[in-house]
């Protein structure tokens, strides 16, 4: 079995995936807040 050496693994794909997830989550939360405000203002 190969020795594990800390910090040698290429994690660019994981980093891009995580950044995309954070960006999507941020925009989703902003959209939910906007929708809640919109419904509070214009609800009958």
Automatic annotation (TrEMBL):
Coiled coil: none
Domain Cytochrome c oxidase subunit IV bacterial aa3 type: start-end pairs: 4-42
Transmembrane regions listed in the UniProt entry: 21-43
Keywords, in A-Z order: Membrane, Transmembrane, Transmembrane helix
SUPFAM superfamilies from the UniProt entry: Bacterial aa3 type cytochrome c oxidase subunit IV (SSF81469)
Domain of life: Bacteria
Keyword S-adenosyl-L-methionine listed: no
InterPro entries noted in UniProt: Cyt-C_aa3_sf, Cyt_c_oxidase_su4_bac-aa3
Protein name from the UniProt record: Aa3 type cytochrome c oxidase subunit IV
